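Batch manifest, entry 17 of 40.
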Amino acid sequence: MEVGIVRRVDIDRQMQEAYLDYAMSVIVSRALPDVRDGLKPVHRRILYAMYDMRLFANQPYKKSARIVGEVLGKYHPHGDAAVYDAMVRMAQDFSMRAPLVDGQGNFGSVDGDPAAAMRYTEARMSPVAHEMLADIDKDTVDFTDNFDGSLVEPTVLPARLPNLLVNGASGIAVGMATSIPPHNLGEVCDALSFMIDRALKNKDVTIDELMKFIKGPDFPTGGIVYRYADTKNGDAPEDVIQNAYAVGRGRITVQARVHVEEMSRNRHRLVITELPYQTNKANLTEKIADLARDGKIEGIADLRDESDRQGMRLVIELTRTVDPMEVLKQLFKMTPLQATFSINMLALVDGEPRLLSLKRALQLFIKHRKDIITRRTRYDLNQAQNRAHILEGLRIALANLDEVIAIIRKSRTSDTAKKNLCTRFKLTVVQATAILDMPLRRLAALERKKIELEYKEVLQRIKYLEGLLKSPRKILGVIKGELKDIKEKYDTPRRTLIVDQPVDKNQPITTDELVPDEAVIAAVSESGYLCHWPADQALEPARGRRKDNLRLAAAVQTRDVLCLLTDTGRAALIPMHQVPAGEAPGDGAPLREFNLQASETPVAGLALPKNGELKGFLFLVSRLGRVKRISLEDLAAVRGTETVVMGLDEDDALLTGFVTPGDGEVVLVSAKGQAIRFAEENVRPMGLPAAGVMGIKLADDDYLAGAGPVKPRGDLVLATAQGLGKRTSLDEFPTQGRYGQGVIAIKLKDDEVVCAETATASDRVMLITDKGNNKTVYVRSLPKLGRSSQGKALIAVRGKDRLVRLVVLPA
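Output type: structure tokens
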């Protein structure tokens, strides 16, 4: 419409046209994500602006205000608050399953606290965000003019990461809305790889097959999701997750993780460790307090938030007269501890909103990656062909070096030389220019060989790229390989537990009830990974995905709490239901996810039953001979945290710890081969921070190598640095008083004891050397010798290698 001209229009028609334009603008340019990269325009512009600023994960942070200004000035002519809010959410690990922005400063919390102003915070791209922009400089995506035509911006990102499903999306458009839950990256990559395998065999896939890999949503805040729901007509329960994945729409029930802890005097407390996705913890706490104060929920004596850097812990202490399950049932009914999550998988496909099934969303991502790899391959092929063309000219010049030099010397100008070279050797202008630009050092014999070698490599590269473009099957293979790399780099254990049963509002379930009570072996690997496997499963050492060795193992039940003792004298208490399953050392999750410091080394593990039957003591031994006893009840009182269990001198370290009955005996063994056996009652129970008392008199150059409880019909298993060892009956060691010199346990010759454990004949032991060699044998197969004997070879130790560890695998 021309400026200054007034025209009469039909208001109804004008409103319809204007509102339609507005609706399409909101749908396409604001509220809905693109199925290919899973991003809305504002998120895409933020990432591209950070890429343009070179704010990579290995570069220093920059002020958020600087980033927001860059986005506003170049790509997104809207309010600064909208851009900053979008960037803040991309940095929140409780909002995004794989955060795309690495923020420094206050970026908000699960309590609903707002982020600090953009002038205070800093940000850069996260490592995962690099995968979203990989190869964008290789003509892999289309670019369009920005709002004023002065710059260009990508219409979509290359996105190696299946971001739409991994991070999910939510948004309200005009007449439609999207709500896509986050998923586990490793599971999505596995499902995509499976689809590629089936496509290579020209076979289709079903939702049932995909759900063998993608179990369901995996929210960043964890929680519990019920897979089934009761039907109104009383038929078999409905698989709500499968139905939602099949059609792209549905509702699922999400529940907080809650467990019951016993207190003294028959009292209980409910402990909430995970909340449903997008639940505000501060509002939830206030809601519970209001319900208790108004008398709508009875039996709540105290409510406090014990959350810290180690994780969430919302404690509800109950009175003695109430049933904790009844209180929990009311909490699920009246508070957001149990909520529904609506799934509406709406995304833009070719610029139009489409409701997507899980299968269709995965197919469209694979199609996008095929387009990206095809365009990338064409770009790389063009670059390789151009380089080959130049190298061919250089080879001609080097083959006729004297004549080329003569032509150049006779030419008055560089343009004349270029023309003469083209005429004489039938070169192109590009080749002639490359010859003239070639430095004199390239004339050396070795440099000439390098050109020949590079030419051969470029020809091989061209052959590979041409073959890739001609074979869609090879392109699918490349996609599968990239997905494997993505999974290896960024996969994390599943956080949300999928329960294969419908919701029962009259019988709420706790975290403990969801975990089958099974006997397992909890294992810590040499590189610091924690996992568990069934107690009856044979261990295959150094065969995990990291080919790691075992550091320690403990027999526990899946409903127990694992107590990990570290060399710094601290104890980390980890519920076993949080420990991922594995098959070998190196599987599982890194210890840092369980709040252990990088400087701490686990030295022992033991089980604390969750049923309150804590009898006996924790017996601790330091390398310099100090010993200490702690009541297991005292240790259980600080469950859920990491705490000091033994005060240590600066030059001392915790060697080991084990459970004793209270009236048993213990044995300590030094590196020089001395052993002492005494009654544990000689060490009185002490408080957690106490340093303990001396258990053995050690020579100035001696220290303890091992210790353990005396077991009925048990043996003391000894191993030396040179790989020698034996087992000796514990009956051969006389009971003495505490703090004696002990008796000889093994005869040594230019050697030292590195490991000493008490075990029974049915146990197994793993011997591990400094270079990673290992051997697992039954204790009964070890040579049984007397105290004063030297021992026999247990494992081959060659050169500078030495035996460093002996780990008992309980029967």
